[in-house]
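Contributing: when you submit paired examples, paste them exactly as shown. First protein:
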Amino acid sequence: MILAPVSGWFGPLAEAPDPVFAEGMMGAGGLVDPIAGELRAPCDGVILTVPGSLHAVTLRGGNGAEILLHVGIETVALQGRGFTAHVSEGDKVSAGDLLLSFDLDILADHATSLQTPVVVANQDEGYSLSQMAAPGPVNVGDPLFTVMRSAAPRQAQPAAAAGSSVNDDVLVLLANGIHARPAARLADLAKQFEARGWLVRAGKRGNVRSPVALMTLGIGHGDMVGIETTGADAGALMSALKQAIEAGLGEITVPLRSAGSDMDEARGTRPDAIALDGTSMIAGVSAAPGLVIGPVKGFEDQAADIAEMGQGVGIERAALSEATAQVSATIGDRLERAKGQEAEILRAHLVLLDDETLTEQAMALVGEGKSAAFAWHSAIQRQVKALKALDDALLVERADDLSDLESQVIAAIAGGRSDGAASCHGAIIVAEELYPSQFLVLAEAGAAGICLTGGGATSHVAILAAEKGIPALVAADRGALTIPDGTPVILSCDTGMMHVAPRPDILAETEQGIARRQSNMAKAAVNAAEPAMTQDGHRIEVFANLGGGQGARDAVANGAEGCGLLRTEFLYMSRATPPGEDEQAAAYQAIADDLDGRPLVIRTLDIGGDKPASFVRFPKEDNPALGLRGVRLTLRRRDLLETQLRAILRVKSANPIQIMLPMVTSIDEVAAVREVLRSLEAGAGASRSLPLGIMVETPASAVTARALAPHVDFFSIGTNDLTQYALAMDRGNPQLAAQVDSFHPAVLNLIAMTAEAGAAHGKWVGVCGSMASHPLAAPVLAGMGVTELSATIRSVPVIKAVLRSVTMEDCRALAGTALEMESADAVRAHILSVWPHLRDWM
C-alpha cells in the first residue's frame, strides 16, 4: 500500500505539467499538490537515492517496488535551495518517517509546479497498480494506491543477445546532470534495442533501462561517463545513447569551458573580416561617453587547461586553498583603494568567495580525486546554473560575479592570469565580454577605451567604465573581433561608432577635435560654479544624479546646483532586511549636509523589474519590466513606504526636501501616497507639506500629464525607461540596445507633452535620465520647456557650458523642427547642422 507522502490534493499522473511524468515514461502513479512542506515515507523501505539537489527521494518497498517521490516540477534547478534532507541513501525507513522538508514559498516562486509525482519507477519489472484513490484532498498517510508484483514479471528483461560489446565515453553537459526526467528518456530509448547497456561513473554501473539505477549514479554537469553495451545491436544502442546525451535529452545544456576551445566554437560562426581600407565603421551602444584614438588590442580570457583528475588530495586541497586566499588578498587590496560601484562589486566578490557551501562543494570533489581547478569550476557552475534558472535579475547578476571568481581562482591555480595587461596602455580593448576583475586590471594598465561585442549599457563593466571615465562601446558589431592588433581606430562613444583604420587626414582632424574637447572641458571646469544662462538670458538649473552619499561633495565641486535624483536603492540592495528609519534618516541627512542647503530630490524606493531585492518576495512575472515595481510595489508594502517617508521627514535642510515617486501611471497612485505622507506629516508635527512630484517614465504618465499636473508639485522625466516603453524595446537587450535611442521623435514628443503640461499648471519640469547628460540633448530639452536637467556628476560642467553657448530662441526653433523629424539620426544631424560647435563637446 502506497500512502500519501504529503497532504494536499491528489490527482491523476496524466495532469502533470511534464510529458515525462504525464505520459508514464517514468512509470505509473499519481500526483499530490502539497499544502505543507514535509515529505514522508509512503511505505516501509530502504532509501535508494537522494540527489544532491535534494528535490526527490527514491525508496525500495518490501516487494521490490521502487517508489520515486519527486517534489514539484523543474525543482532540480534550485540545486537544494529550500530543501532539507532527513535521510541518506541506504537508510531504512518506516511509513510516515520524515524524508525531506521544503520551503513551499521558494518552490512556488521558482518551480514550474508544486505537484509532486508519486511513481512506481520500475513498473516494467512486473508491477501493477490497483485501488487508485479518487481525485480529491488527502492527508499524510491516506492510501493512494496498491502496488502488486505478479509471479512472473510482466515485461521481463531480456538476456543480452549474442553479439559484440562496445564501450565508449561521453561528456555530460546537461545543466542539471542526469536527474529523473533525462534518466526516464534514456531508459525509454534503451528499451527500443535488444542490446543491454549501462552507464558507468566513479566505478558504479547503472542499467540504462532503469531510471532509478541511472539516478543512483549521481551524474552531474561536466562528468565524463562511460557507456557499456553488449548484444546484437550493441553498436546501434551505443550510438543512440551517446547522441542522446550529447544532444541534451531535451534539457538545457551548458558547455564546459576549456582552454583548447577554438574561438569559432566559443563564439559561433566567425564573423566576416572587417575591411581595413578606412571605410569600415563598427556600430554599438555607448556605455560610457568619450572620444579616443588608439591601436586595437584584442582580448581573450586565457582559460587554464582544466584536467579533471588531480595529483593527490593533499596537493589539490593545498592548491585550492592557496588560490582562493591569493584571490581574496588581491580583491581586498583593490577594495582599499576603491569607491562607488567598484567598491560594491568588490565587496560582493569577497562575500561570494567566502561562501562556505561553495568551498565545501569544491573540497568534496577534491576529496573524490578531482583536480583543484576542475573542482572549483564544477562547484561554481553548479551555483551559476541554479541562480540563472531562477529568472531573478539580481541572482543572475550574482551568477556573473561567480563566473568572474571562477576565472580568477582557476587562473591563480594555474600560476596567474595571462591577460597581457602590460601591453594595453593607450590601447582600445576589443573583446566579446570582460569580467569586472579583468576590466579593472586593464584600466589600471592604462587602457584608453573598450569595445565589446556583448554586454549592455547597464552591465558591471559598463558601470565601471563610466565611473572611471574610460570610453566604452558595448553590443558592437561582431566584426570588431576580426580587427588585427595594432590597427588604429577612432572610438567615439558619444556617437556609438568605432572608425577602423581611418585615413591620416581623419586621424589628424580627430586629434584636433580631441584637443579642442579637452580645452573646452578645462574651461568648463573653471566656470562650473557659474549658472547655466543662455546667451539671451534664460536660466536652466543643472543638478546632479546621486546614488549614495559619497558623490554629493563631488557634485557640488563640479558645479551642481542641487541633486535632482537621489536613487535611494543604494541603501536597500545586497542586504537581507530593509534599512530602518534611523539608518535612512542619517544617510539622507548626510547628503543634505554635503549639499549645504541646495535642493535635494529624493526618489522613493524603486525596486522590481531589473532591480530586485532579497527582502521582497516578488511574484513570478513573465515580464518583470511591466510588473510589480516602483510605486506599485511600495503601495502594496506600506511598511517600506512609511518607513522611508518618516526618515525623509526628519531631514533638515534650508531648502525643503522634495519627494519623487517612480513608475507612476495614474492619479490614484499619487493620491494614495499623498494621503500617507500627510498622515505622517501630521503625526510628526510638520509645519508644511513636502513637495511631492513624479517620475515621468511611462507613456501613460506623459500622455496624461495635463491630468496629473494639478495633483503633483513637479515632473521629472526618466528618459531611460520612457524610451524603452515608448519604443517597446528592452534597453538591456544587446541586439536592440542601439535602437533604444532617446532622440527618437516619439520620445521627444512625449517629453514635449510633459513640459507643456507642467508649464500650463505652473509646475517645474526636469529631466533626470541619461539624456540630461548628453551635450546634444541639453539645448533641445531646454527648447521644449524643460527647466531643470539632472546629469551625471562628470557631465555637469559640460552641460552648463553648452547651454551658455546657445540662445533660447534657437533652442525653441530647433526643438520644434526635431519633433517633426523621422528618426533619431535625423534629429542628431539637424542639431549639429544648427550648432556645429557642439562637435567639440562630443
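Second protein:
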Amino acid sequence: MKFVTDFRKTAIKYDGSDISYKDTIKWSKSFGEKLDLEREDRVIIFMENRPELLYSFLAVWDKKGTCVCLDESFDSESLEYYLRDADAKYILTSRKNEEVTRRAIEDTGVSLEVVVADDIEDTYEGEVDYLEHPERDAVALMLYTSGTTGDPKGVMLTYDNILVNVEGLDKYDVYKSTDSILAILPMHHIFPLLGAGIIPLSKGATVVFLKEMSKAAIGECLKNNGITMIIGVPRLYEMFHKGIMDKINSNKVARTLFSLCERFQNLSLSRKIFKKVHEGFGGNIRYFVSGGSKLEPQVAKDFLTLGIEVLEGYGMTETAPMMTFTPGGEVLPGSAGIVLPGTELKIADDGEILSKGRHVMKGYFKRPEATAETVRDGWIHTGDLGELRNGKLFVTGRKKEMIVLSNGKNINPLEIEAFIMKNTNLIQEMAVTEYNNLLTAVVYPNFQAVKDEGVTNIRETLKWGVVDKYNNGAPAYRKILAIEVVGEELPKTKLGKVRRFMLPDFLDGMNREEVEIEEPEFEEYRVLSDYLKSVKGRGVAPNAHLELDLGLDSLELVELLSYLESTFGVDANEELLLEHSTVEKLARYLEEHSNEIVDTGVNWGEILHKEIEVELPKSNKLGILAKVLLKPVFKLYLKHSKSGVEHVSDSPVIFAGNHQSVADGAILNEALPNDVLKNSYYMAKVKHFDSPKMKRIADNTNVLVVDINKNLAETLQTLAHVLNSGKNVVIFPEGVRSREGRMGEFKKSFAILSKELNVPVVPFGIRGAYEAFPTGTKLPKSGRVEIKFFDRILPENMSYEEVVEKTRDRIKEWVEK
C-alpha cells in the first residue's frame, strides 16, 4: 500500500526552496491530520500549482479518500456548480482562493468544511516515513470534464484505473529517480496531475513548480534546475520550436547543419551539432512529453533533427488518461504511439477509436445514463477518429467536430487546418468551422510575423496568399468560402485545445455592434475617431484594430495615411500603422508627434501628383513576341474572338476589365493592336517576379512590379506617372481572378486615377476564359474565349463611385448575358 517513500533527496522545488521527500511526507501527514475521512469521502482541492496542492492530494490518498481537483481560476459563481455536484466533505484551498471559496459556499448553502492550506502547520510527529494509496477498487480521483453540451461531468477513476497506466510506463522505463520534471500545466487536468506530479513522486523524481509563468521564468528554471523532462502541451513546444527555427533559418551555416542532421536522423550526432540548443534547455533534457491535443508532425520531426525526442500519447480523462504512448527511441512524428500493455484498442467501422481494459473509468458521478452512453459492452467510445498503422495510432479528427454539409459530404477540419498552417508563418491559430452556412476559416494572425514581413494588408494577404492556395487544390465541397480574421485568441481549454463548438458565438461576438466604451478625451483622438467614423459609417472603439475590426481596405489605408500627413503634419507610412494598429494607439502617437491639427480631408489629386522616381520597363518586345508565339493557340485551340476594337486608340486610357483566368493578360494582348500594346502597362505583384529571370521578363514586357504591402500610395503614383507620360495602364479592378466564374466587386483605384487625372476608362469584358482555364488548373482546356471593348467612359462630372458602377455594369451585362 506504500505509494511515496523517503528517497532521501529533494522531492519538490518551488520559489527558491528545496523540499525533501521526508518533509513532503511530514507535510502531507500534517494536512491529513485536518481530515476525518472514510473510504471514498470526497475532498475538493482548489488551489494554484504549489507544493501544498501535492500535500493535499497525497494526504487525501493516505487517508483513503477521493481527490476532486478543480480549476483554481474559477470565480465564485463558476465554483458553485461543483460544490453542489461533488457532495464533498472538505475543500482544501489556498489563501488566494479563500474568499472565492467562502462566498461560493455561502451562496450555495452546501455543508463542507474549508481548510486553508496556508494555515496548516507541520505538526506531524509520527514515525511513519511513507504515504499510502487507496485500495485498488476504490475511487481515488474525480475530475470534471465537459463536452459541447450539458453540465460538466465528474469522471470517477479507481486507483486501479491509474495503476495500469503507471505499469505501462514502467515497462518502457519512462520515469527515473534521477529525473527533474518541470510541472508547467495546471493540475486540475489528469495529464499534468499524474504525469508531472503524482507519478514522479512515486518514483523518487523531483517535481519543479514555477511561481511565475513567463518565458523568462521558464528559461531560468530550465537552466538552473537540471530539468530532464517537460510535461507540456503542443503550444509550448511550438513556441520553443519557432524560436529555435527562426535562429537556424537566419544563419546559412546552421541551415546547412540542420539539413545534414535531417538526412542522417542520428540523435547522438544531432545532440553534438546542436549542443547550444540543448544547453538552452539546461543541457539535461531526456524527453519532451506532449499531450492534451495533437502536436504538429513537423514540430516533432524538427525536434528529432535537433536531437530531442517528443513523446506523444493519446487518451482522455475517462481512461486515466492514456491508451497509447510513444516510448523513447520509437518517435514517429504524427503518431500517438503504441497501445499500452493491459489496454485493448480498435477502430470502429465509422473510424471512431474504441478502447477496453482496466484503464476505463468506473463511470460519471451520479450520471448512469451518460456512463451507459459512453461505455458500451465494456468499450469506451472516445468520440475521436483514428487509424492503426503498423501498431501505431494516428488520430485523424474528432467525430463531433466533423462538419457535415447540406449535400451529405463530411469534412475533417483538422486536415484543412494542418495543410494551411504548414504553408505559412502568418497564422498564430486557426480553426475551420461552418458559420452562416459557409465553410469558414477563423484566423488569428501571428502579428509578430505580420510585422516582420511588413504586411499591411493582413486580411487580403491571408485570404488570397494563404487560404486561396489551399482552395486551388481542394475539391469544390472542401473549399473555404469565407475567412474571418480575428484580433484575439480563439476560445480554448487550459490545455490549448480549440473549443470548436464555441466558435459561432465567438464570431457573433466579434461581429456584433461595438458596446459603449469610455473614449479618450484628447483632441487627436477625437479628430481621428470622427474621421474613421465618417469613412466606415459606424461607431469606432478606442481598441478597434484599424484593419481587423474596422475593415479598412488598401485604398482606405492610403487615404488614412494621407489624412494623417495633411491633418496632423506627421510623416505617415505603412510601418506607422503596423506599430500603432489600434485607434487609440495611433491617436496617442499623433498626440506626441503632431504640432497642430488642420483638418483638410483627403486630397487624391495631391497624392497622385506627388513626384516620385519611377523606372519604367525598357520595352514590350517580349510581350509582342509572346503574342506572335501564342497566335496559333488562340486561333486553333482557344478560338479567340474580339469585338469593339474601334473603341481602342493611341491616347492614354485606363483599360479596366473583369478577371477570369491567368490567361486574361494574353487574351487582351491578342486583341490590342501592336502600336497600342507597346504603350500599355500592367501591374503585377512582386512575389511573382522576385527572381532575376522573372525581373528580366518584367523589364521587357511592360510589367510594373509592385508590392501592395509596402507603400500602396507609391503604386498608385507609379500608375499616375505612366498615364501622365501618355501611356496606357491595364487594371483588373476585382483584384483577383474569379474563383467561381462570377464577377466580383470592383475596387475604385482605377476610378480615382481616371477622375483625378481626367483619363478615360475603356471597359473590356472577357468571356469563356474561366471555363477554359479556371483557377487551380495548370493547362487550359480547348474552348472559345471572347473579348469585347466598350465605349469610353469620361470621368468629368462623375464621382468615383459612378465611374466604378458604370464600368462594371457595362462589362457585367455582356459577360453574364
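If you have annotations for the second protein, write them as plain sentences, like these:
The chain has four domains: 209-399, 402-511, 523-602, 621-815.
The longest helix spans residues 621-637.
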